[in-house]
Amino acid sequence: MTEQPGKLALRSQEWIQTALFQLMEKKAYSSISITEITDRAGLARQTFYRNFEDKDDILLNYLERLLKGMQDNIGKPSAFNEEMLVVLFRHWKSNVPSSLIHNIELKDRKIRQLIYKSICDFFDELSDSEIHDGAGITEDTYRFYAHKSLSSIVHLMLIEWTLNHYHLTPEEIGRMVSDLTVSIRAHL
Questions:
Q1: Residues 11 and 61 in one domain
Q2: Which of 52, 105, 152, 176 is least buried, going by the fewest C-beta atoms within 10 A?
Q3: pTM value?
C-alpha cells in the first residue's frame, strides 16, 4: 500500500524540520548546510527543494505555526493588548525548542532576523495596516509604522527575556511590554 502524496510531503517536512533542529543543538544555524540537513533527514536534496525553498523557509514555517498556536489559545485578538502580549510570551516559553534557544544564545544574527520577520508577519496578519500612496502622513501611515515598532519591541524583549533565562514571568514581561508600547498601540 502506498502513502498518499500529501501525507508523504508532510512526513518529509517533519523529517527535514527535525533534522534542522537536531543539527542546531550542536551547531549555529548560519553554519548548517542543506546537504547536512538532507543527510540527517535521510532524504535527497530534490525532496528538500520539493518542500522548502531554503533552510530559512523551514524555520519561518515553524515560527509561523508557533505563533498561530498562540493565536489558537486566545482566538483572533480584537486589540494588541496586555493579555495578548502575556499569552505570546507564555506560549513562547512553553513551546520554543531548546535548539532555537541555543542559537539565540549563540547570538546567531540570522536566527534573530527570522524571529523578527515571523513576528512582523504575524502582527501584519492580525491587522489590516497598509501604507496608501499619497502625500502626507495619514492614519494608515501611523498604523503601519506603529505596527513595525511594536514588532521590533516585542522581538527585542523576547530575545532578551530568553537570553536572561525567563527571569520574569510571562505576566511580568507582558505587562512591561504593554506599558512600554502604550503610545505605539494607540495607533493600532
A1: no
A2: 105
A3: 0.87
Q: What is the domain range of residue 172?
A: 54-185
Give a three-class secondary structure readout of 17-67: HHHHHHHHCCCCHHHCCHHHHHHHHCCCHHHHHHHCCCHHHHHHHHHHHHH
Alpha-carbon span 50 to 115, nearest angstrom: 24
Residue type for position 112: R
Single-letter amino acid, residue 33: S
Contact (CB, 8 A) for 116 and 151: yes
C-alpha cell at 138: 495619514
Tens-of-pLDDT digits for all 188 residues of the chain? 344 456 767 899 999 999 999 999 999 999 999 999 999 999 999 999 999 999 999 999 999 999 988 777 666 655 689 999 999 999 999 999 999 999 999 999 999 999 999 999 998 887 764 555 555 677 788 888 999 999 999 999 999 999 999 999 999 999 999 999 999 998 88
Cell numbers representing residue 75 in the block? 482566538
Identity of the residue numbered 134: G
Do 37 and 110 lie in one domain? The reply is no
Let me know whether 48 and 58 are in one domain: no
